[in-house]
Amino acid sequence: MLKLITVGLGLLLLSGCASYGVIDNAELGNAPPAEPYSVKALAGRKGSGDIALTLAFSGGGTRAAALSYGVLEELRDTTVMIDGQPRRLLDEVDNISSVSGGSFTSAYYGLYGEQIFEDYKNVFLTRNVEGELVHGLFNPLRWFSDKGRTEMAVELYEKQVFHGATFADMQKAGGPLIVINASDLGYGVRFSFVQEYFDLLCSDLSSFPVARAVAASSAVPILFNPVVVKDYHNCNKMGETGWAALYNNRETSNPALAEIINGLKTYADKDNRQYAHFVDGGITDNLGLRAIYAVNQLSGGPQAYVRSMGIKMPRYVAVISVNASTDPEPEMDKTNKQPSLAETINSMSNVQIHLYNNATIDLIQKSLTQWSQLVSTPEWPVKPYFAKLGFVDFEQPEQRHFFNAIPTSFSLSEEQVDKLIEAGHELLRNNPDYQRLLADLGGAVAPGVAAH
After folding, report:
1. Contact (Cβ atoms closer than 8 angstroms) between residue 126 and residue 116
2. Cβ–Cβ contacts within 10 Å for residue 249, how many?
3. Which residues touch 258 (CB under 8 Å, ≥6 apart)?
4. How far apart are CA 48 and CA 30, in angstroms?
5. Which of 31, 111, 220, 353 sits at 20 to 30 Å (Cα–Cα) from 282?
6. CA of 175: how far to CAs of 32, 170, 245, in Å?
7. What pTM did the predictor assign?
8. Residue 205 pLDDT > 60
9. Which DSSP category does 187 fall into?
10. Greatest pairwise CA separation for the chain in angstroms
11. What radius of gyration, in Å, describes the C-alpha atoms of the chain?
């Protein structure tokens, strides 16, 4: 990834010309979309209702994409009993929230469903995406283009992975709600590609390309230009309806919620915020978990969420966090030689990511327990489960060393991809909270698939 950044910087210096973001988001008229890709429209569409199951896929390039794919396979291979009937646990997934590399897997599953188990490995996981991007960067025709390097990535993802699909296609696919997350470079706002957020832009998400959303979610600053969207004016008196109305008329002493509200309010300043610039979602939340918190809180809390969405109160509330972040051993401490620029940047990034990850996990863990208590009654107790998966869970040092040494790249060997997929299976299957959930649901791994 650092080599890519170096190449990008070199070509940027060579070009010496300004680039402009391609605007591809349509204005929202007075009439809302007939079938919006929204939290409310898709709430509870996928699962049975007895269990509310949410997955969160972290950033980390192909490493994150492969690990999260392994988790999907494990859920596919696991059967639970719902209302006395066997069901695959994968069919109980209601939502997937993702950032950066994890967004490729979530978006592909959201669009193509079971097809992911047939071709995703060849389409993306073992593909040398990084090499194709570098090759494109060296194309002289692009050195003086005013479209920017991100457009090259969007074109590649469109052609090779998502084939022109929009969020309307995601809606028609009938799968779980896929929440792709990016970071607003100007204000540090975490932004989710669902209609509730696009309402703040007075824009219609349904016609927006999925490839462009994934490109935004994974657009590493410096290497890639931001994905730019237009913040339109005067649609349906925004600020009086939806989430905007909730937070405009709400006082809160909750610092985390206040931060979300203050950030989203900036989109109402149409004169100064004529555009928004979206980059890698891992900057504002590398785990993809804070979108889950935001949706719940912006809806008014767990009770208001269930009531406003018109869904059945679940007996079990489970969140599975797939964390592909690594903790490699620093080489700088083996010598008195001053660390390189690359080593310094890596170390600074790792420290910030791990500290913020820990704060995010603590927030979600406490919130999940609190939410379950708020909606529980003596007659209908709601049980929470929070399965945190990460390479730190491997007991064998050699296993941890192998996975921590896999770079944040979009070009991994087939061996690395296969071992990451296997790790997804193993980490989920051995997680204590996941095992507790399976015991409560009478679940079991399907015969013949326990070993991979």
Report:
1. no
2. 8
3. 252
4. 34
5. 111
6. 22, 8, 29
7. 0.90
8. yes
9. T
10. 69
11. 21
